[in-house]
Amino acid sequence: MKLSTRCAYLLLFVFVCVAQARGVSAPFRWGHDGFNGAAFSHAARNSLRHDFVPQVQYYFGREWPPPDSQIYMHHPPMLHFHLIAAFALGGEEVWLGRAISAGYTILTWLLLVLLLRRYASDRLAIVSGAVYALAPIFLIFGNFINHEPGGMFWCLMTIGAYLYFLEHRRLWLGTLTMILCASISQQFDWSGYYIAFAVASVHFLRMVNDPEMRKTWPLWVVFCFFSLANFVGFFAWVRFTLGDLSDMESSFSVRSGSPDGYWGRLVERNLVLYGALPLAGFLLSVFTLSIRALRRRLQPVDTIAFAFCFAGVIQITVFKQAGWVHSYWGYYFLPAIAVGTARVLLLLGAAAEKTSAWFERSIRERVQGGPNRRLPVSQTLGGLCIAAPLLLHAPFALETWLEQVRLGHGSFANPPDQDAELSFVLGVASEFDPRETSYVIHRSLQGLRIEAFYYLDAPHHPSYGIHEQVPGDDDVRVLLVDLAHISVAERARLDRLMPRHRTTIWDDRFVSIAFGEVEQEQLSRFSLPPRQSLAHRWTRGFPYVALSEWSDPLPSSEERGASAVDGEAERPGESGAAQNEATAGEVQNAATAGEVNVEEEVQNTEDANGEASGRVL
Fold first, then answer.
1. Which letter does DSSP use for residue 255 in this model?
2. Tens digit of each residue's pLDDT (9 = 90 or more) over 487-526
3. Category of 430 on φ-ψ map: left (φ > 0), alpha (ψ -120 to 50) or beta
4. How far is CA 586 from CA 225, 431, 489, in A?
5. What is the mean predicted confidence (pLDDT) over 141-154?
6. β-bridge mates for residue 515, sequence order
7. Whose CA is closest to 506, among 444, 421, 430?
8. Could you give the CA distance from residue 428 to residue 511 in angstroms, rounded to a whole number?
9. SS (H, E, C) 122-133
10. Which of 234, 378, 415, 577 has minimal Cβ neighbours within 10 Å of its Cβ?
11. pLDDT band (50, 70, 90) for residue 185
12. 478 neighbors 523 (Cβ within 8 angstroms)
């Protein structure tokens, strides 16, 4: 192997590893990474805590078992088993969950390169590896906690085992290896079945066209049998766990719906997640692959592109509603796009070499050294034709990746800025023992999702008013409020509660009030270290807001005025009394629904201009 070839492999591998380390230890924030990562991680936590194998993602109660509606069975459980093992060995650390996905992503890239190098050429392996590594979908979703990274690896392992069988013709060894890899992939994600079907179809066509391959029919039969057994076995487990298959039927019905504008949304999204140049190369590769298939010139390595293209098509055509919701739904196209685009680029380079050969021949004998000296004109032009599209695509890929990092790790959306809220939740979680705490989430924090509840890790319920909370026999009841989104009446009520209970305020905005016996001790706070190394910033991801504790007395109601109703400033031409009247009306409406005591809240509204103030204890 040439030194330049080795350097190319090494540089690509280092880039892949560094890219997958990005944000690996960042807290769950927003988007697919935050929502899926927190949900699957909490399910593993529940399994370890309660010795319950199935996934329970959104249940935070202490009494076990949860209702059947809380058990998640819409995907095979292999990711869940990986997370359980990782948390059991290394503790419930976010980076362990992401390290599983990042490790599988790196191994998938490495396996693809090795297969292409062995069964095709170094040039195809390097160019495919570069296209793969520069795909924004790979950079954004490579280390998020979900089924795709692990499922992709074991799907590719299934194809690799099949190519190894075609090379060595070891019937039973090849059969057992394929069954093992396919079974693991099928217990990771549904795409394992699509890949198995594609491989079985390719081998069936080989048996039809090649009499020598017909002797391998036992491989085909046994492989298909075990794939079907995996499918039936999983649904039998679902039926045993939930009692019937109605939940699976409902999930299939919902995910296979056809939302309006789906195909336009899919094209628009994948132009960002893959890029125009790789997608154009992929479409051209489908055309060239079809021509080679008609001329019966397909190579065994073409099974990679065909199988993953088939899996991707099934994903986006059968489960349209899921594809509408999940930005990463086209992830399984990635190997097919990488290999197909690389083939097109190599064809372009070969065409450039041929068309420039006449120029090289015409000047070869004119230069010093005579006819035996060669000028690498054609090779240089061929290399430029391959490298130029990649160089044009690279800035787009990196810019898209960094933009998504800024918006939120793996979000692929424009989420509201919730960094302050999450920092508050992390601070509260460090203050109270989740085994002895339950939380009351005021409506001002109603936007909190599983990402925040994962860190609270305790029972919680919503509240539409600010009331005295009665702690349980064995827990502390903690009320969480965002001062930026409460009414004047609620602020007055809060002012009365704070002096009587342990209260902590961050940045004159977020409040936690503990009702019950709580030891008075120095509180730990979530904050960024004053100096961060480059490695810490890279693996931690987007810097979170460092919330400071606010220890001065609250400003009095007179100083504060009645200028905020439901978090909005006083409207021009509207007096504080008018706003108080509006707030009283809101209280009346809330009371109709049985949420608050009308007389008490209206009285609080009328007292809003009085001397109600509290202190941080």
1. H
2. 898 999 888 888 888 888 887 789 999 887 655 443 334 4
3. alpha
4. 64, 34, 10
5. 94
6. 477
7. 421
8. 10
9. HHHHHHHHHHHH
10. 577
11. very high
12. no
Instruction: Report which of residues 259 and 599 the model is more confident about.
Output: 259
Q: Vertex 29, ends 23 and 33: CA angle to 5°?
A: 65
Cα(496)–Cα(500) distance, integer angstroms: 8
Q: Burial of 110 by CB count in 10 Å (0-12 exposed, 13-18 middle, 19+ buried)?
A: middle
pLDDT of residue 181 exceeding 80: yes
* 369 conformational bin, left if phi > 0, alpha if psi -120 to 50, beta if neither: left
pLDDT at residue 239 above 80? yes
The strand pairing partners of 505, in sequence order, are: 511
Q: Is the pLDDT of residue 382 over 50?
A: yes
Asked if residue 566 lies in contact with residue 487, where contact means CB atoms within 8 angstroms, the answer is yes
What amino acid is encoded at 455 in this protein?
Answer: Y
Angstrom CA distances, 518 to 200, 404, 432, 515, stand at: 63, 41, 9, 8
pLDDT at 223: 94
Can you say whether the dihedral through the CA atoms of 5, 9, 10, 15 is positive or negative? positive
Nearest residue to 396 (alpha-carbon basis) of 285, 279, 535, 284: 279
Q: Is residue 344 within 8 Å of residue 305, measured between CB atoms?
A: no
Instruction: Determine the length of the chain.
Output: 617
Q: Which amino acid is at 562?
A: A
What is the pLDDT at residue 378? 61
Report the C-alpha gap between 117 and 111 in whole angstroms.
10
Distance CA(2)–CA(520), nearest Å, equals 68
- The single-letter DSSP state of residue 548 is P
